[in-house]
Structure formats: structure tokens, C-alpha cells
Amino acid sequence: MSVAPSLNVVSTKLSPQEEAFQLARKIVELDLLRDEIWESLASIAGDHAYEVLRMIQNS
């Protein structure tokens, strides 16, 4: 399962302000996606979800 979002979020044709807003929107999207994925992990791993996450982060 691939959950990696597209990293191509900045266009060279945008003004700095438009670019900033686009990046801010992308951060919000990533945060919402992270929450969804966390809920799925917690549903599967239960009380061990945090432990599983840290194990993967540290590998």
C-alpha cells in the first residue's frame, strides 16, 4: 500500500504568496491523511499502535 503523496507541490509559475498557500494546503492534506492512517493502524494494532509506529520509524 503506497500512501506517499506527491511531493511536486510547487510550480515555478506561482507568486510567492500563491506558493505559500499551496504549501500550507498540502500540509493540511498530509495532516488529515496522517490522521486517517493512524486510525487504521490503531484499529489493527490496538494498544500496540504507538509501539509499532516507533519500531518502524527507528528501523
Report what the structure shows.
The structure is a single chain. With 59 residues, the protein is mostly helical. It has one domain (16-57). 66% of the residues lie in helices and 0% in strands. It is built from two helices and no strands. It has helices at residues 16-45, 49-57. The protein is elongated, with a radius of gyration of 16 Å. The relative contact order is 0.10.
SSE arrangement:
Blueprint lengths: L15 H30 L3 H9 L2
Can I get a quick summary?
By secondary structure, the chain is mainly alpha-helical.
Q: How many beta-strand segments?
A: 0
Rg, Cα atoms, Å:
16 Å
Helix content: 55-70%
Low-confidence stretches: none
In DSSP terms (H or I, runs of 4 or more residues), the helix count works out at: 2
What sequence of helices (H) and strands (E) makes up the elements?
HH
Q: Quick one: biggest sheet?
A: none
- Report the principal-axis shape: elongated
Distance N to C terminus: 18 Å
The proportion of strand residues reads under 5%
Mean pLDDT: 89
Output the structural class: mainly alpha
- How many separate domains? 1
Main traits of this protein?
59 residues; mainly alpha
